[in-house]
Design a protein that fits this description.
Blueprint: E1 7-11, H1 16-29, E2 32-39, H2 47-55, E3 61-65, H3 67-80, H4 97-111, E4 115-117, H5 126-137, E5 142-144, H6 155-164, E6 180-183, E7 188-191, H7 204-207, E8 222-229, E9 232-236, E10 239-240, H8 243-256, E11 261-267, E12 273-279, H9 281-297, H10 300-319, H11 325-338, E13 343-350, E14 353-360, H12 368-371, H13 383-402
Parallel strand pairs: 1-2, 1-4, 2-3, 4-5
Antiparallel strand pairs: 6-7, 7-12, 8-9, 8-13, 9-10, 11-12, 13-14
Length: 403
């Protein structure tokens, strides 16, 4: 096996699992390991991963801030589609994986690596998302997925392996964690262990880290405005912000007002159901703001066509097909429609609720002159009779023939 792989790029967090994987790759494949740690807004320092990789003898270490790229090139394009998986999930974990995979493949090319590796388990969706992305970007890359190969099938075995190889173990990793969490700038997900029974209410005080529970949120509504240009948000309360800074600001605003908590049972791509708790404060605020802006600026049929695209588009992202041609085809149509979505939305945030209170746009298709209940000269109400009769013709004929 040592001849099969010479150099591998590992997606490395610095935690127990990926530190064990790092040493296991060296022992099992006899290969050189290059570590890659991405800062995508997980809220933790990433530089300690560099120090730990150095301590474990790694020579080539990549620690990179990808927050702007993450929001600009992945989150915002996805939000132009108003994407929700199974009607509720804002795809926070799903959308982060193709970026990490993309950069891994780029690094592999830069350093001359012939393989990449990740720490996703054989039961989850992430293994699919990583590996579909790897193959889409480099069809000949070798992929090493330790959780599908090794015999370290329990937390105890991982700890024993770490201790026997002088790998430092954080105190909170020696015992069974009550649940696992994954975070980035868009969301925090919590799942497993204490959360596995879908009837048991989460211990909110321990689960929630980004969102204040609505019942503890301020008793006064907070009013904000969001400016959009060509489908993407560009300013909050009149202040122009970069993509990552804007999402950070919306996370703060939504989080303190109890917005963005989701407890759902979802259908994983690999075939099982899974219960997860998600915190997506800024994304939830943004979703409501974008839909309000689209209601003013998109033609009826264009808006409805976008809504028909959305479930399929969301499923593509959830299942790991970000780099697939069908996703890119839909993205082109979605981006075309989004060119008109420019303007300002005003909202009130209050105890888990987002209330749109106003919207305006230079591209508005809304006409007070047409919709007014007062007398007007642009709409002849008598025209509705013929319109209705033409649309009723097939219904009337069907009834006459069918009885």
């Amino acid at each position: 096996m040592s001849d099969a792989v010479k150099k591998v790029v590992l997606a490395y967090s610095g935690g127990l699992d990926t530190s064990v994987i790092l040493r296991w790759l060296q022992d099992t494949y006899g290969c050189e390991v290059v570590t890659f740690t991405a800062d995508i807004g997980q809220g933790e320092e990433v530089e300690p991963a560099r120090a730990k990789a150095e301590m474990l003898g790694i020579q080539e270490i990549f620690v990179e801030d990808l927050r702007e790229e993450f929001v600009r090139d992945f989150v915002f394009p996805m939000f132009r589609a108003n994407a929700l998986y199974e009607g509720t999930y804002l795809l926070g974990t799903s959308i982060a994986r193709p970026l990490i995979a993309k950069r891994q493949i780029e690094i592999a090319r830069e350093v001359g690596a012939d393989a990449v590796s990740h720490g996703a388990t054989g039961k989850g969706n992430d293994q699919v998302r990583f590996e579909l992305s790897y193959y889409a970007l480099n069809p000949d890359i070798k992929i090493i997925a330790p959780w599908r190969e090794w015999d370290l099938t329990s937390r105890t075995r991982l700890v024993d392996y770490a201790e026997s190889h002088q790998i430092p173990i954080p105190r909170d990793k020696r015992g069974e964690a009550p649940f696992s969490q994954d975070a980035n700038l868009l969301h925090i997900s919590s799942e497993g262990k204490a959360l596995e029974d879908p009837w048991v209410e989460p211990d909110w005080d321990h689960v929630l880290t980004r969102v204040t529970p609505p019942w503890r949120a301020p008793d006064t509504a907070e009013e904000i405005t969001i400016d959009c240009e060509a489908g993407d948000p560009v300013a909050v309360n009149g202040e122009a912000l970069s993509p990552a800074a804007l999402l950070t600001r919306l996370n703060d605003l939504g989080g303190r007002n109890g917005i963005g908590i989701l407890d759902m049972v979802e259908n994983r791509f690999v075939g099982m159901k899974n219960r997860g708790v998600y915190e997506t404060p800024g994304g939830t605020v943004l979703l409501h703001a974008r839909r309000a802006m689209e209601s003013l600026t998109l033609d009826r049929n264009a808006a409805h066509q976008k809504d028909e695209f959305m479930p399929r588009y969301a499923e593509m992202i959830y299942n790991g097909f970000w780099f697939a041609p069908e996703r890119e085809m839909l993205q082109a149509a979605i981006d075309q429609a989004s060119r008109r979505v420019t303007g300002t939305v005003r909202m009130k945030l209050y105890k888990g609720n987002t209330l749109v209170t106003g919207r305006k746009s230079p591209n508005s298709l809304y006409s007070e002159e047409v919709v007014t209940f007062e007398e007007d000269s642009v709409y002849d109400q008598k025209d509705a009779e013929g319109f209705i009769k033409l649309n009723a013709l097939r219904l009337r004929l069907a009834k006459k023939v069918g009885g």
